[in-house]
């Protein structure tokens, strides 16, 4: 790597104390440059603040699209590596979404952040940032990655598991047995502009009612991620709930099924309860995480694909999210 692009979006890593508490702050380029110079890191790099800087709890699809645009512009201008600084609350969501928004990008993108602001005694901000830079210098494969606490993780497999510890992120041991996609059509690579999409995630729970599902599906959603029990089961004896899903699918809503289990894997046909649920039109997400399923559905629907096309590509592994 000879020409690094650093994109700073906000988050705890660059926050400063205000009267209302920690808040995103500008001026991080000078602080980063001081750290690199102090360690004698010889590197050509360019820094950009993605305004407005945000706490990642406020992350939205438009922010993903702005990140994608800034990264593509930098790559087309000649950068050969990207470091994206991001808050931790939605870091795994953004890593997954960018993995699908940047399919085919010829350079590596590494996201990192921190549990404590840069400058905190004993904090993790500089170790994470400098570790990510060193990983890029040594060589990282093209694609989207997440670096945290000394580990380089797959961007579409990582999840935040802890709210305070420095080892907050990990790749969950979910089975990955899907078929890999062949050559992607031009309309799905990193050059493809996207639009925001109305999406929803709904976990199943004992006592869920058809009215809950109908209310959500009636809100104009274009895609629904249904977080099922175990290997993809749900209340198959609730005919009204099944009919609500079937009707939504019939009018073009894309329905996908993930597992609520941390090491879960949706498999159609294992249980009768799961088979009846899948028969409503749900596409099994295999071992995908919630973050990956949401990012993938956004990238596919946001590209303007029809329901049948979205379902086809969703069921295939695109960047390592479903297959080893």
From TrEMBL:
EC number: 3.5.1.1
Pfam families: Asparaginase, Asparaginase_C
Residue ranges occupied by any Asparaginase/glutaminase C-terminal domain in the UniProt entry: 200-314
Gene Ontology annotations of biological process type: aspartate family amino acid metabolic process
Binding site for substrate: 56, 88-89
L-asparaginase N-terminal domain ranges (all copies): 4-175
Name assigned to this protein: asparaginase
Source species of the chain: Metapseudomonas furukawaii
């Amino acid at each position: 790597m000879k020409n690094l692009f650093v994109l700073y979006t906000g988050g705890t890593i660059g926050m400063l104390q205000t009267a209302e508490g920690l808040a995103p702050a500008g001026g991080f380029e000078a602080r980063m440059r001081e750290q690199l110079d102090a360690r004698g890191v010889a590197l050509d790099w360019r820094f950009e603040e993605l305004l407005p800087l945000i706490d990642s709890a406020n992350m939205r699809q438009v922010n993903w699209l702005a990140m994608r645009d800034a990264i593509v512009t930098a790559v087309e201008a000649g950068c050969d590596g990207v470091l994206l600084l991001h808050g931790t609350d939605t870091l795994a969501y953004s890593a997954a979404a960018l993995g699908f928004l940047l399919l085919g990008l010829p350079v590596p993108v590494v996201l990192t952040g921190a549990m404590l602001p840069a400058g905190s005694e004993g904090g993790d901000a500089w170790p994470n940032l400098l570790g990510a830079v060193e990983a890029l210098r040594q060589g990282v494969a093209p694609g989207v990655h997440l670096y945290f606490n000394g580990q380089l993780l797959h961007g579409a497999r990582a999840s935040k598991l802890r709210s305070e510890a420095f080892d907050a992120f990990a790749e969950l041991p979910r089975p990955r047995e899907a078929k890999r996609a062949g050559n992607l059509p031009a309309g799905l690579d990193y050059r493809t502009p996207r639009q925001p999409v109305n999406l929803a995630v709904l976990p199943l729970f004992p006592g869920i009612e058809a009215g809950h599902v109908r209310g959500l599906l009636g809100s104009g959603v274009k895609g629904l991620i249904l977080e099922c029990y175990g290997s993809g089961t749900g209340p198959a004896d609730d005919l009204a709930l099944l009919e609500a899903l079937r009707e939504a699918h019939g009018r073009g809503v894309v329905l996908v099924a993930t597992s609520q289990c941390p090491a879960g894997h949706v498999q159609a046909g294992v249980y009768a309860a799961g088979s009846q649920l899948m028969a409503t039109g749900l596409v099994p997400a295999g071992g995908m995480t919630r973050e990956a399923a949401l990012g993938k559905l956004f990238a596919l629907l946001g590209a303007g694909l029809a329901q049948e096309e979205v379902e086809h590509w969703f069921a295939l592994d695109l960047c390592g999210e479903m297959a080893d």
